[in-house]
Amino acid sequence: MFCSEKKSLEVERIVKANDREYNEKFQYADNRIHTSKYSILTFLPINLFEQFQKVANAYFLFLLLLQLIPEISSLTWFTTLVPLVLVITMTAMKDATDDYFRHKSDNQVNNRLSEVLIDSKLRNEKWMNVKVGDIIKLENNQFVAADLLLLSSSEPHGLCYIETAELDGETNLKVRHALSVTSELGADFSRLAKFDGIVVCEAPNNKLDKFTGVLSWKDSKHSLNNENIILRGCILRNTSWCFGMVIFAGPDTKLMQNSGKTKFKRTSIDRLMNTLVLWIFGFLVCLGIILAIGNSIWENQVGDQFRTFLFWNERGKNSLFSGFLTFWSYIIILNTVVPISLYVSMEVIRLGHSYFINWDRKMYYAGKSTPAEARTTTLNEELGQIEYVFSDKTGTLTQNIMTFQKCSINGKIYGEVHDDMGQKTDITKKNEPVDFSVNPQADRTFQFFDHRLMESVKLGDSKVYEFLRLLALCHTVMSEENSAGQLIYQVQSPDEGALVTAARNFGFIFKSRTPETITIEELGTLVTYQLLAFLDFNNIRKRMSVIVRNPEGQIKLYSKGADTILFEKLHPSNEDLLTLTTDHLSEFAGEGLRTLAIAYRDLDDKYFKEWHKMLEDANALMDERDERIAGLYEEIERDLMLLGATAVEDKLQEGVIETITSLSLANIKIWVLTGDKQETAINIGYACNMLTDDMNDVFIIAGNTAVEVREELRKAKENLFGQNRSSSNGDVVFEKQQLELDSVVEETITGDYALIINGHSLAHALESDVKNDLLELACMCKTVVCCRVTPLQKAQVVELVKNYRNAVTLAIGDGANDVSMIKSAHIGVGISGQEGLQAVLASDYSFAQFRYLQRLLLVHGRWSYFRMCKFLCYFFYKNFAFTLVHFWFGFFCGFSAQDVSDQNSMDYPQLYEPGQLNQLFNKRKFFICMAHGIYTSLALFFIPYGAFYNAAGEDGQHIADYQSFAVTMATSLVIVVSVQIALDTSYWTVINHVFIWGSVATYFSILFTMHSNGIFGMFPNQFPFVGNARHSLTQKCIWLVILLTTVASVVPVVVLRFLKMDLCPTLSDRIRQRQKAQKKARPLRSRRPQTRRSSSRRSGYAFAHQEGYGELITSGKNMRAKNPPLTSGLEKTLYNSTSWLEHFCKKTTDTVSSFSQDKTVKLYTYL
How does it sit in the membrane (predicted)? Predict the structure, then answer.
């Protein structure tokens, strides 16, 4: 590790291969990582500093120091020291435990083994000992230890396949390739050991999709880009081995550059408590000054005579000095307004809430035997105040599984299930899937429930054949066989994997490819097609095509892509079929499926040769090459014949739609931050009902420069609230004025809007002079989707909202690429998903499914906030009432010193709003509690004082002695605050009764014990008032005074609450009344329906697809020599003497259709 000053000076990196001595002079970081906060030496000072950032802890430390001064202390010092040390110790132990697990995780990573080439031999080295410039060997399915320059691999042309799930959340494979000059090194240790190339490249940074550098070797220079680099955190897939040179190590790797620091999190109530403690201390200072002045006056005028009356020997005491000492004495005496027991009680309540979360069976996922876990005990009430949720997509909202659900072929829908009456029904477990067992090459995990498609295949429907043939030919999938001889597909896009697998199960099996041919098995017969041209996908074309020659010599163009694009290319004769297919697409899209149009064209041999010659000429051009090629693609992709459409489901996790709908009703804004492509993110937005066709507008920000981004944001703002509101020239105004968003304008926005922004545009939008426009626009929109974002950008977006909106934020994700976001938000939630446990380890709360977020916030979060606020209001009221009695007494002693049920919380998300608005405990509530406490303290003191003034007991003796007065007042206090907490209790249990009334019983037992003969015999100096409690509490007048005091203290509160509930009931009051009525009636509970949005055609194909794969395939660079085509030439060969279709024809299958009851569900909305 090295200092930040050195890091800031690094403008470029120079690395020499196999030369540690040369590289050490630059003091580059080694490969050790640190995610922990403390070390053995730094734990105590850093942790104590963090804990004493709490004003309360500093306040109690100050009181402890005062109590050590005998002249002013009326309380022993250990009464503050013991609980303070206990609280600090418990917090320190919890922090130490959390950091221990971080150290343990770091050690597990740092001690992984990697093969490093040292002295022409491979040696096992721990990751933490790997140095910049080392050459290391990776094997299939291994994690990449550092950021490497790929030198060579087992694949042709130095290619390798990697999975980048920990970086961007995508599980589809990506290709990296070595330079041709280094790929020749192969696995020859001697040649690799002699490799002495020097790399000059960019300094360490967090840009995952960019790398620039130059390799100098053998008197020549070779440019490097991101395609030559394998980043730490990736996994090598489908590649036997590869060698790479370490460029960045440890904290300099792009993965670690994108990892946020572990931050000390505090709740808004904790921050408010810091302010209130300061205010209370100021209040105590004022009280102390009043009493000190009173003491000085009393000492000056009465003190001498009073001391003479008491036979005190003290003479000539300075009245000013006496007032000074009295001031500090009262600071100690009156500190019970905020005793340390408040913080102990808060921690106990939080601990209890954490156990409630851990024990909640409704948040237990049986599929993985995973319960919900509160990994911190200090943030529970913050769960009830969430305003913004930032969610990852892949693995969080979705299962990251693509499944072929439906298709439309020649105007007929396949994939639906019908009953005996021909009516469409829902698919249930009772429905029997299509039996693919007769196809030995079928994917056993694939399920399809509409038997009619297989019947059409059996009957030889030519349109169905052509449809499935297109799916088997038009793609970028690579195939290989595993050790068991099973066919395995390497897919660059999960959409393509789903389509090719569907064709495979229905008898059109993609087998292999070469740069010039594609071989498929059609119903048991191998057929090889000559690949004449590959028209690749890009984000503008939104389609891909292949031109092939079949064994009969016919040339065909097969195309698939976005329906809105492809339909424009159809021949006019398709009008009727187009209308029908369009309706089908609308139906598919309404179900949240990702749609794709399928079409073909027969080409004339002469026309194709002329076109292909023009394509070769265009490829040879230096200028306007891409434009000419695009024009030729447009020319040949016309007059297409429509075959139909596909519908693929990007499976959402269970309950995602319902959860998002419910959270939206609770006024919680959900932003999706994903590393996926824009179109993929939009598709999921529609599938989750975050985006709908009913929205007024969807703003897409895709500018490549800061100027373009600013202009796009300006135009979007004009559409929202008019040109006058938008900054016409983009000038920067005063930051405070710009950052304080106009809530009035925000409320006047009518309609629903959505904002979609790309990662490269977001990088410009997060600049200081643009981010305020971005934030203002985003906060006006109902839905925000940020796509192609890096892990660091996720954290920056969270910080932007967190800091400038002053809103409570929650981030939820399941992968390592979500760790920065989880650490930055007020609350971090980790999902134990497909991408490891990195997100869980960095989180505050964890569970297995996104749907549990609804219960975590609307039930546990709301209850935690509600209970904590009730507790604080009651605690401050009780302590003000108790403490200020001492203040009033000072003038007469010479100045010496449940709520609604969990289901209703889910059914009525609007109940969550008080937490977001911080209504239940704030400064106003504090002053109300303070005023309530002051009123109660006045009643507690002056009613007994007035009653005892010149009064006599039943035995004729005077009862206005000091101790009888104290017993009466203390008993009144205990009864009053017990009645008050009973009034504050919404739901009674045995535990409530035991603690509330048990505390009253405990008080009386302690009171009689303190005034007993036994305790006097043991401690005669401390407990001299023998029998006083028994004598006082046997007087009827005493109990009448206690009753009067209780009634005077409680009745005004009861009256005010009754009037408030009757005249201005809250939503919670109304639902509580309805809940009581429902308990009597016990109506059947309705269930919420699955929300379906209106029609919207969306294409799913290749939205997770990268441009350039067509060129890679036709170049042959990704073809393995050991896998030659199964057949050569344009010939049709018989694969088996009898095709599996003939076997299928002999086999009869009965289609079982079952009725499923229509489930009508009502979403509770409060009227």
Answer: Multi-pass membrane protein
